[in-house]
Design a protein that fits this description.
single chain; mainly alpha; about 160 residues; 5 helices
């Protein structure tokens, strides 16, 4: 019972950390858009691009740990694997989470490229188009996380659709 409680706490903390990192990414992308529209930072955009890359690394680490802790909950939680694996809401939640992960690939690749380019050239500035695309993708990820959370609530309450 204590193991189930500790896994549940870890799962929830990681979920909130993941959402926080993703929301912070979106805020920094919006700040980057504003800097591009107004003026550049005095030291170039590298500090902003490094922050984005670091936030994305935190986001990725949270996602990986969330999957690991979730798997432990399925294997060792009070409800047991049979409950989860037979629950269609569980599979809907997993599908939505996979969709979030798939959407996160493009922004991650942008952040890595931007950070490297800014490190090599202090005058580097990502195109407004790619920044806007990354912001749209991160926004879509956040909206899909709402679906993940709705499925999690339904999964905990209902065994079938």
């Amino acid at each position: 019972m204590r193991t189930d409680f500790l896994l549940a706490v870890a799962h929830h903390v990681l979920a909130f950390a993941l959402v926080s990192a993703l929301a912070a990414e979106l805020a920094w992308l919006r700040a980057l858009q504003s800097l591009q529209q107004l003026q550049r930072e005095p030291h170039g955009l590298e500090p902003v691009l490094v922050r984005l890359a670091r936030l994305d690394a935190v986001y990725g680490a949270c996602a990986g740990l969330l999957v690991a802790v979730g798997a432990l909950r399925v294997a060792f939680g009070v409800k047991g694997a049979r409950y989860y694996l037979a629950n269609p809401w569980f599979w809907a939640k997993m599908a939505a989470f996979v969709a979030v992960g798939a959407l996160s690939v493009a922004p991650t690749m942008h952040f890595v490229r931007w950070r490297r380019a800014a490190h090599a050239d202090a005058a580097f500035e990502p195109s407004a188009r790619t920044v806007a695309r990354a912001a749209r993708l991160v926004t879509t990820e956040l909206l899909l996380i709402v679906v993940v959370l709705a499925c999690a609530a339904a999964m905990a309450r209902y065994g079938t659709l």
